[in-house]
């Protein structure tokens, strides 16, 4: 998560803190975790597509006052317009052996 001393967050009202905490626990600035390939046109989104803070906050907190969502989103957008989903631990990306899908269930017949 981002430390609250990031300049963009200094002026945020206390009501924005839960939204900020949730968002930064789920998403991270692309510069921190993604490879950048100028030949490909920018970041390579390896943990899902880039997420716009305003859209995600509006979706996650639909009953929160609009000004709280807008203040939080504006502070996040000052840092980056699109954010990356946070990478997960490797063990979270794989099913335990007993839960693995048998090979015959996903291979085409005759393969």
Unreliable parts: 91-101
Cα radius of gyration in angstroms: 18 Å
Overall helicity:
25-40%
* Helix run count: 4
β-sheet strand percentage: 5-15%
Please tally the β strands and state the result.
4
Mean pLDDT: 80
Biggest pleated-sheet summary: 2 strands, antiparallel
The tally of domains stands at: 1
Identify the strand order in the major beta sheet.
1-4
Main structural class = mainly alpha
Q: Which sequence of SSEs, written as H and E, runs from N to C?
A: HEHEEHHE
Overall geometric form: elongated
Separation of termini?
Answer: 46 Å
Can you describe what's shown?
It is a single chain. This protein is mostly helical and 111 residues long. It has one domain. The chain is built from four helices and four strands. Strands 1-4 form a two-stranded antiparallel sheet. Helix 3 packs antiparallel against helix 4. The termini are far apart. About 10% of the residues have low confidence.
Protein traits:
111 residues, mainly alpha, two-stranded antiparallel ribbon, 4 helices, 32% helix, 7% strand
What would you say about this model in short?
This protein is mostly helical.
């Amino acid at each position: 998560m981002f430390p609250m001393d990031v300049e963009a967050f200094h002026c945020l009202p206390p009501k924005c803190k839960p939204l900020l905490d949730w968002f930064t626990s789920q998403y991270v600035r692309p510069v921190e975790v993604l490879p950048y390939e100028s030949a490909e046109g920018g970041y390579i989104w390896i943990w899902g597509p880039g997420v716009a803070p305003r859209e995600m906050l509006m979706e996650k907190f639909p009953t929160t006052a609009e000004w709280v969502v807008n203040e939080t989103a504006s502070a996040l957008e000052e840092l980056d317009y699109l954010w990356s989903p946070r990478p997960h631990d490797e063990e979270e990306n794989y099913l335990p052996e007993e839960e693995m899908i048998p090979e015959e269930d996903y291979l085409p017949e005759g393969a």
